[in-house]
Amino acid sequence: MNRVANRRAGIGATAVSFAALMFGLNASTVKVILATGITPELLVLYRAIFTASIAGFILLLTNRKAFRVEKKDIPLLIVYGIIGIAMMQWSYSNAVSRLPIAVALLIEYTAIVIVPLVALILFKEKIKARLWVGIAAVLVGLAIVSNIWDSHLDPIGVAWACMAAICVSVYFLIGEHTQRKRDAMSTLFYTFAIAAVFWGIVNMFNPSEIPDINKIVSLSGNLAGVLWPLWVALLWLGIMGSFVPMYLDYIALGNLSATAVGIIATSETVFASAFAWVWLGESMTTLGVIGGLIVIAGIILAETSRTNTLKA
Question: Which helix (H) or strand (E) covers residue 259, if one does?
Fold first, then answer.
């Protein structure tokens, strides 16, 4: 069944906005957890298993028919699960471990330029000139928020962030295509199950040390005095930093184009910068606040330029 005719732009915009807020908080959470010594590979494997398990359990209780998959859709789901989920979360985790959060996200969200270019060249999607002005405003605002000119840019961290940008582009583009036929929950189950299998195989050849989940860890930064078991942090990350925001993103991709979702998702950088400032003590200046307002203005400009194509 083609779900395009039932798209609702308002639901999509609301879903991706809340997902961006939660992913913004998730950036600081990931940084704190990685500081405990957990490898990015093991963290991504955990998130994949946790998210797939929750999605699968919900489907068993509510919609078992959604498990059905046509043979022709399997290759696309595999590509989506490996590149759009497994490699995307891995490269992102490595990037934020080496770069300031806002800088890592700025580089990652250059995907908002890649996505419409691919949509224009390969899918012949109509792109209005005003959209590019909005994208330019978003990128300028993100650069200001990240204070990129004063940041120490670890070359390896930059490489990871560039890889994340490519993977995020795949995530948005294939996600939109997949959501034309599948519901969000079954897509979430299959893509994360594939990601879990992928990282499970990788971990067999290059095993990571299993951490003590009962280890007491500090929340670091301005919350250094707050201590909790590592398993609590992992549980929070699994639910509020993975399952819920990813489900919201899939809902968004079922109601908006990949370009629209990508542009709104850039607000994650503003949220992440705010959380990193309050929580981890990463710098936030008046100029950064102005940059955040430019990002919001760019998103509004870009989205209003697409009002005639949101339901296409």
Answer: helix 258-265
Nearest to 244 by CA among 99, 13, 47, 6: 47
Q: Three-state SS for 289? A: helix
Parts of the chain with a pLDDT under 50: 2, 307-312
Instruction: Report strand pairing: 227-229 vs 216-218.
Output: antiparallel
- Residue the block writes with tokens 């490898």: 39
Q: Which two tokens stand for residue 74?
A: 């399997």
Task: Give me the pLDDT at residue 60, please.
Answer: 95
Q: Please give the single-letter amino acid code of residue 114.
A: I
Which residue reads 């490595």 in tokens? 94
- Residues forming a β-bridge with 217: 228
Task: Report the run of H or E that residue 64 belongs to, with start and end.
Answer: none
Predicted local confidence at residue 310, as pLDDT: 40
Q: Rounded to a whole number, what is the distance in angstroms from the first to the last CA of the chain?
A: 16
280 to 103, 120, 277: CA distances (angstroms): 15, 40, 6
- Give residue 285's pLDDT: 67
Cα–Cα distance, 108 to 75 (Å, whole number) = 25
* Residue whose tokens read 């189950």: 189
Amino acid at 46: Y
